[in-house]
Amino acid sequence: MTNKDSESEKGVDEQLEQRNGSAGVTGKRQKVKAHSKKWWWVYLILFIAGVLIVTLPIIYVGFPNIAQNGVNKAHLEVTGLEFYNPTPDSIQVTERIITHNPSMYTPTLDPWSGGTFVVTNGTYSDKAIVYLPVPKTHTLHPLSNAAIVNATVPINDQAQIALYATQLVKLEKVTTALVGKPLLHIGKLPAIHVNYNASTTYSGMNGLQGFNVTNIRIDPGNTLLILPNMNGTAFIPNPSNITADLGNVTFSLKDPAGVEVGVALIENMLLRPGDNNLPLVGMLNQTLVIPALENGFINLTITGTDCIYNGKHIPYYEAALAANLFHLRLNVLQILKDSLGI
């Protein structure tokens, strides 16, 4: 056999091997294709199951955690509080707030009922003051405005609203918390209930420091104490952003010995933020004032005793005013001279 014949035979063998290999590959592909065609639905189910296994924990576990974390990081800033139309059992509230939202998520909260709690040195009161109807809100990043406007709400607990009113009047800073479980939406993801618990600190009235009575005039001839014999202007600074409609407020005037020497009345007492100048009338028992004078001056302790709105006592305002004492030094001789035009 020549070399040419040997090479020819090798070439034939290689071609046969290539054809046999190609046929083998084609056969495997056909088997895979046939298997896939027959069992495609099984693979589809497995694919869907895999997608669900990955996505469902994200939606139903990861998303609630992310949403709750975003709610926890947000905080409120109270920019205005208004209290009108008080009754012994209810009050009309307007609250304006700014929500600070550091998260890039911008959720929407459905309307919900939020309990307002007094927070004292980090400790929540055991009962809510009132439950506020919080409207539907869409929280933006980084800031958004919201308001509860003219909501008349029942008093949930008399002791708590008396405590709150007292803190508003006496303290420089007041802390309250809004608590509830609103329904939260983000896009088309399933809505979830979140635990909303946001405390905020804002300015109180700080004891209404700077209180004074000016332009006082007395009627020395009116000693029967049947009609008012004194009038003046009460200067009441309010450093907070709180407006409170108190109604007709009566004050007791006592000398240093604790003897009541007179009473004063401010009708329709409406405290607004800033300086308030309100007309005041009263009855001064001149027989008791004279023995208490020191070089023509008298030191008075002034305490709120009655707060009447639409003919009804407002006990929580009366508690707040009774807890806040005013001190006033009056030059009685000068007041008498001014009253007589001397």
TrEMBL record:
InterPro entries: DUF3712 (IPR022185), Tag1 (IPR046368)
Domain of life: Eukaryota
Annotated signal sequence range: none
GO cellular component: fungal-type vacuole membrane
Disordered, as annotated region: 1-28
One family name in Pfam for this protein: DUF3712
Tagged with keyword Lipid metabolism: no
Membrane spanning stretches: 39-63
Keyword Signal found: no
Keywords: Membrane, Transmembrane, Transmembrane helix
Compositionally biased intervals (Basic and acidic residues): 1-17
Cross-referenced PANTHER family: CHROMOSOME 16, WHOLE GENOME SHOTGUN SEQUENCE, LIPID-BINDING SERUM GLYCOPROTEIN C-TERMINAL DOMAIN-CONTAINING PROTEIN
The protein's name: Uncharacterized protein
